[in-house]
Design a protein that fits this description.
Blueprint: H1 6-25, H2 30-39, H3 44-62, H4 67-71, H5 81-97, H6 100-129, H7 139-158, H8 163-173, H9 179-203, H10 209-233, H11 235-260
Helix pairs in contact: 1-2, 1-3, 1-10, 2-3, 3-9, 3-10, 5-7, 5-9, 6-8, 6-11, 7-8, 7-9, 8-9, 10-11
Length: about 260
């Protein structure tokens, strides 16, 4: 396990600060925090668990910005909490049981997949915003949404980056068209998925606490103050930066994995 000296702590805090700011504006902060921990020397599984625990408190706070939209959501949407919690804990269990060598090989592909999902977010959001507002209220549609959400939560508990756009798709199955309400529900269900995974990672002693503490402070500070900077440079610029970081991290970790063979 890498030592947390001043340079490591500074880089970890900065990465979490950026991740918190990005999450408050566009989402996708995990694409910064998780690979940074790998490059700081944490094993990939521990880096994933540590990033999840460190970023979760700041992520949960973002849902309060949508509390008005959440208060008007249909009660039936709350049933998606069940697959969110089940999938989140099962995904976390799968991560713990994945041999480190296999997860090391999967990491570049997971980051690339999450980056591609992030790229697709705004076009899909625009499509959902203009979609037919007719709600699908049948039991079959609800069961389909719950099954889809279960698979999203499995992926979220296992890795996490990019689950937002997948959850928006699950809500579109139920006919939601208010993108602000959908974003509020997305943050709520994401908090459930990552929260139950985070508690399991803590219980299983999979996290490196010195990084958790410094990164949690960085993420909260980034979400609070860094968002102003991110808003000034614009949502489009933030998205381009996240996409560039995602692709850069994926390529660098592909190279790192190949050289380590």
């Amino acid at each position: 396990m890498t030592a947390l000296d001043f340079p490591h702590a500074t880089v970890a805090f900065a990465a979490a600060f950026v991740a918190g700011a990005i999450n408050s504006v566009a989402g996708g902060g995990t694409l910064v925090s998780f690979p940074t921990l790998i490059w700081l020397g944490l094993p990939s599984v521990a880096a994933n668990a540590t990033s999840t625990v460190a970023i979760w408190p700041a992520s949960v706070s973002s849902m309060f910005g949508y509390r008005r939209e959440l208060s008007t959501a249909a009660p039936r949407m709350l049933v998606l909490v069940v697959p969110s919690l089940i999938g989140g804990i099962v995904g976390a269990l799968l991560l713990r049981r994945t041999p480190p060598a296999i997860f090391d090989a999967l990491v570049p592909f997971l980051i690339l997949f999450a980056t591609l999902l992030f790229m697709a977010q705004e076009p899909i959001q625009r499509k959902l915003k203009t979609a037919n507002a007719e709600a699908h209220t049948s039991t079959r549609w609800l069961a389909g949404a719950m099954l889809f959400q279960l698979f999203v939560a499995l992926y979220g508990g296992y890795f996490g980056a990019g689950i937002g756009i997948l959850m928006l798709a699950a809500m579109s199955i139920l006919g939601l068209s208010d993108i602000h309400q959908m974003n509020g529900l997305k943050n709520f269900f994401g908090g459930c998925i990552n929260g139950v995974a985070a508690f399991y990672f803590i219980w299983a002693r999979m996290v490196y606490w010195p990084f958790v503490v410094i990164m949690a402070m960085g993420a909260i500070a980034g979400g609070y103050s860094g968002a102003g900077v991110a808003r000034r440079i614009g949502r489009t610029a933030v998205r381009r930066i996240v996409i560039a970081i995602g692709f850069g991290m994926a390529v660098s970790l592909f190279v790192k994995f190949i050289l380590s063979r």
